[in-house]
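Appendix B, record 7
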Amino acid sequence: MIHGFARLVPVFAALLACTAPVKAAPVADAAMLAAVKACAPARPCAAKLPVRVVVVTMFEIGADSGDKPGEFQLWKERRHLTETIPFPQGWHNLAYDPETGVLAIVTGMGSIKSATATLALGLDERLDLSKAYWLVAGIAGIDPEDASVGSAAWAHYLIDGDMAHEIDAREIPAGWSSGFFALHGKGPEDKTPLDPTNGEMFELNPALQDWAFALTKDITLPDDALIAAERAKFAGYPNAQKPPFVLKGDNLAAMTFWHGAKLTQWANAWTKFWTRGKGEFVTSAMEETGTFQSIEYLTKVGRADRDRVMVLRAASNFTMPPKGADPAGYLLRENQGYAGMTAALESLYSVGGKVVDEIVTHWDRYEKSPPK
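Structure tokens (predicted):
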């Protein structure tokens, strides 16, 4: 009996070998990496690194690893983005994982830096981004009407908060609700629908947003005593008092870091105006419209695909203070260190990482066309 079993051991071993998972081949091998690194930035390059996902971050704090993290650090450390690609034509060097084809960029803060860095990335001859998915993953302010600090929102609409007319608040004409109104508009009370021809609004692929949300909506996000204490102050805002969660919600990008109940009211109205009532302001940031404008241009020359762009923002702070609090004082205190910074960064990585894993693990499913 023992002898018979011994004869079967090689058979069992062979069967196990057939059913064991096979490690996928690297997206880029050593020879390809060496050839790309031999090319000078912003110069012709015959070799190209294949990129499956671009993770777009906007800032880092201090070093790229080993200290207090910004938006980039968790991706670099936990995703093993071990290959540094010099990127002097942008804000920060690139980081790449040859095993998965994930590339991360730090654009710098603000729409000017995000637009120029994204365009420079797309025109870089060392990279093949033609089929890449883009995941913008950054912190944001969040409207307490919609969610709590630490929550993560997938955007459908990107609204620009800079392209406009403005009159100083001390000189607003009688009867005007604000001094801020659309280009080609006749004042803030003019609700005539306008086409966003100057980049005032962009619409992302709604099927991709739905897919990303469905994939991640049940993820339990990190919570802690600090953000629990902060959300408890928002009496009368039931969504603000919930533990962090994943939701859908649109993003307004403006170079000015604004804050307060009045400006949150403006952000909601501005979003409704440009989306013709279809959008819902949830997160405030600075970069999205610049980033996406460049991707629109790159799409026209086959260097990117606008239908493969996802925007995920996680809340590090509220866009307004709790009732009774002084907006200026609240903003200045938050600027000393956002209550939800740590939770937001972890939420971005947890939620965004789920999507990145799905794409790179099942590239055969998503290479030819985005999920629907």
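Remarks on this record: The radius of gyration is 23 Å. The longest helix spans residues 341-361.
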